[in-house]
Amino acid sequence: MSKNWLLTRRGVLCLGLGTLASIGTLAKSKALNNPARDFTVVGEASLKERAAAKGLIYGAPAKYRTLSSDAEFAARFPQECAILAAENDLKWRNIRPSPKRFNFTKGDWMLEFARTHDLLFRGHTLVWYKALPKWFKEKVNSQNAERILVDHIDKVVGRYAGQIHSWHVVNEALHLRDGRSDGLRNSPWLDVLGPDYIELAFRAAREADPKSLLVYNENDLWFDGQLWSTTANGEAKRVAVLKLLERLKSRGTPIDVLGIQGHLRGTYMTHLNPKKLRAFLADVADLDLKIMVTELDVRDHKLPKDINVRDRLVATAYEDFLSVVLDEPAVMAVFTWGLSDRDTWLSRFSPRKDGLAVRPLPLDDQLNRKLAWNAMARAFDNAPMR
Ligand code: 9MR
Q1: Per-residue pLDDT tens for 303-356?
Q2: pLDDT digits (tens, 9 = 90+) for 158-206
Q3: Best substitution site from 87, 89, 122, 136 to test ligand 1's pocket, by max atoms within 8 Å of Cβ?
């Protein structure tokens, strides 16, 4: 079979029928694996410097656990990143041990780390259907939910007011497979508050900190078609997000930014549709919103074993995606979801069947730059100036 089989009529037919998921992953990888592709980078400047040269911000989240115990990682982080996000330490489950108690120890430590190392700080996340404390189900009901949510936002956002660059206010509120006409997810928040919980959260956040940028953060916006059984069709999801954003804006909701997560899949990059993605980003910008890539990484658990081939495919995904997205002037920041393969959610969530370590991030587990780093550096270098 020709290496370029995806370009043959049979390949196009296969794509059209949406059967990619069942076709051998190696064949798909070959379709994008171009051993001659040039990932050369000029100079030694860091990702944060290259991003800043174009008016962009680059950063990543980290965990208190890692930053406070891994001195090598903690020293490396500020060399590449201009902004630190709290990966888990500001989630409900971690700061609300009981309805009456807040525990800010780790959040405070993270902010202090950011300050000490001259990093901006990003809060994640105020309203999510996951990472809720065990007591949530038992104690929160439609009578008290508004008070509890507003109080939470007031205390958490208020505590860091004036010191935080941006907050993920609402995370992943859409889930088309739940079958609602507005596309909203059947989340615990929707159950107790109805669809207006989104607006409520943004208003409370603005009230508690008039300065930080308020972000709506959503997944599965980068591809076309349906990739696997639990995802929505990418186009339908983009339409639903636009509708939600239009509704929020028309009601004067204080929202500043759409966060597109960007958890890419190395085996599905043929589903990146630059034209449609560009059009979507332009539509978002027309709503007078900024855009951030909030959780970029490339899942490699089904890519070939060979590290050179794998790294090349991961790098290809990074550069192909970023070169489209960074063309949109409304895009102001890029976060990878982690900095080094040493600490990535994917090693637990999407491990490889062959037992090899996953390699989804710009730095390897020794904190050295990989081809994915080159791909990002190139994308920043080639991005238009903001
Ligand atoms: O990377 C995070 C992982 O360490 C946590 O166990 C998990 C549950 O809290 O959340 C992961 O981050 C998620 C983020 O908060 C929201 N978007 C999807 C991310 C990956 O699951």
Answers
A1: 999 999 999 999 999 999 999 999 999 999 999 999 999 999 999 999 999 999
A2: 999 999 999 999 999 999 999 999 999 999 999 999 999 999 999 999 9
A3: 87
pTM: predicted TM-score of the whole model, two decimal places: 0.92
List the beta bridge partners of residue 215: 168, 257
360 pLDDT tier (thresholds 50, 70, 90): very high
State if residue 65 touches ligand 1 by the CB under 6 angstroms criterion.
no
- Residue 19 makes CB contacts below 8 A (sequence gap 6+) with none
Cα separation values, 162 from 56, 90, 109, 145, 201, Å: 21, 17, 16, 27, 18
Please tell me if the CB atom of residue 345 comes closer than 6 angstroms to any atom of ligand 1: yes
Backbone angles phi, psi at 127, to 5 degrees: -135, 115
Each domain of the chain, given as residue ranges in start order, spans 5-382
Taking the mean position of all CA atoms in its chain, how far away is CA 227?
18
| CB 220 near ligand 1, within 6 Å | no
Give the nearest ligand 1 atom to 61 CA.
1
Query: Considering only the top CATH level, what class is 5-382?
Result: alpha beta
Residue 20 has pLDDT above 50, yes or no: no
Cα–Cα distance measured from residue 97 to residue 101, given in angstroms and rounded to the nearest whole number: 6
| Residue whose pair of structure tokens reads 């636009």 in the numeric block | 242
Which residue's alpha carbon is at the smallest distance from atom 6 of ligand 1?
345
